[in-house]
Design a protein that fits this description.
binds adenosine-5'-diphosphate; 2 domains; seven-stranded mixed beta sheet; globular; 60s Ribosomal Protein L30, Chain: A; binds magnesium ion
Length: 348
């Protein structure tokens, strides 16, 4: 679907592993104070002084997590970094370094991997993280990317999934379901393209949702905003698998129940119109779609005045005693038990 206009193809076997690593990493510069030694030795050296170190890893596998027929490699590199930084921000920490490991087959020329790394570099620059290492190996099948993100947080500032208390407010940032609907559009256009390769897709009405799928952002801005507002959430998680499964994680780990109001779930107008077009329920999409990389957190009611007027935040419910259970209160005012669907990674 997305044509490779780059005609130059340098085969990986011609340049070898070390040549490849040099090519891919030559632009990376170190800017974090905590990065003592970056790429180029047997290991990186980091120094966080008194701060706590936060570490998180994710693995992205071609055919499972991404489809290169509509995912440009540059976007994939960007997204691989975002997915990981999002986990660091969900701890109320600041991301400082990443390592990037790839397994690639010979079907990728050097130029394709340079595209991938251009996305890695852009994301690292925008979010101010240093790429301090990684590993490179061959793969007999698809492309595999693993990113490890490292961050720092002052002792006591960290926010876990387990701190929600009855009467806390449940808050979500941004809007939900767009990345999933963007994927539906891309999948549909891929099918159209298979039938007629001359048919160029008109993505104009879907720019926001397609961008949310192909170029997600992680919410570093929210972590900084909460600090400015002097709000420390009681619990927090990032929304990678879908709102309902993240709510269940917070409730389970905090040992609490909650009510979530269907009419409070933030949806972009493009999500609503695309759901109508596909005849899908927009609440189902927001609850189960995933890949939004927004933050879901709980705050004490005392902090409500600090966030109430802020357009970044939607208060979608409140925490209850564990015996109350976990429910969605629908627009028709019925209470239905919340179930997780999330990304069903292990289903056929
Ligand atoms: P080793 O044999 O010790 O694993 P490598 O030759 O694989 O060392 O790596 C050399 C240096 O390049 C190390 O600093 C490593 O972290 C870095 N590096 C290797 N592959 C990548 C990659 N794909 N992205 C970023 N850095 C990498
Ligand atoms: Mg290595």
């Amino acid at each position: 679907m997305i044509e490779d206009k780059n005609q130059q193809r340098t085969s990986l076997s011609d340049i070898g592993e070390f040549g490849l690593i040099d090519q891919l990493t030559k632009n990376f510069k170190i800017s974090q104070k905590s990065s003592v030694k970056g790429i180029g030795d047997d290991a990186a050296i980091l120094n966080f002084d008194q701060k706590q170190v936060v570490v998180s890893t994710d693995l992205l596998v071609e055919g499972v997590h991404f489809d290169l027929s509509y995912m440009p490699l540059k976007h994939l590199g960007y997204k691989a970094i975002m997915v990981n930084l999002s986990d660091i921000y969900a701890m109320n920490a600041m991301a400082t370094q990443v390592t990037v490991s790839i397994a690639v087959s010979n079907r990728f020329p050097l130029e394709a991997l340079e595209e991938l790394y251009a996305g890695v570099e852009t994301a690292s620059q925008i979010y101010n993280v240093d790429v301090v290492g990684g590993d490179t190996t061959s793969s007999t099948s698809g492309l595999i990317i693993s990113v490890t993100a490292i961050g720092e947080v002052e002792k006591g500032d960290e926010v876990l999934r387990s701190g929600a208390k009855p009467n806390d407010l449940l808050v979500v940032t941004g809007d939900l379901g767009a990345a999933y609907m963007g994927l539906q559009i891309l999948e549909r256009e891929k099918e159209v393209f298979k039938v007629n390769p001359n048919n160029q897709p008109d993505l104009e009405p879907y720019t926001y949702i397609v961008e949310r799928q192909l170029k997600p952002e992680s919410r570093k801005d929210i972590v900084m905003l909460l600090k400015d507002l002097e709000v420390k959430p009681t619990s927090m998680i990032d929304i990678s698998d879908g709102l309902s499964s993240e709510i269940l994680h917070i409730c389970k780990q905090s040992g609490v129940g909650c009510d979530v109001y269907e009419n409070k779930i933030p949806l972009d107008p493009q999500v609503i119109s695309t759901c109508e077009e596909f005849n899908i329920d927009s609440t189902t999409v927001a609850l189960n779609g995933g890949e939004d990389y927004e933050l879901l957190f709980t705050i004490s009611q005392d902090d409500y005045p600090k966030i109430k007027a802020n357009p970044n935040f939607s208060i979608i419910g409140h925490i209850k005693e564990p015996s109350a259970g976990i429910h969605l209160v629908t627009r028709a005012d019925t209470r239905i038990p919340m179930k997780a669907q999330g990304w069903k990674s292990f289903e056929d």
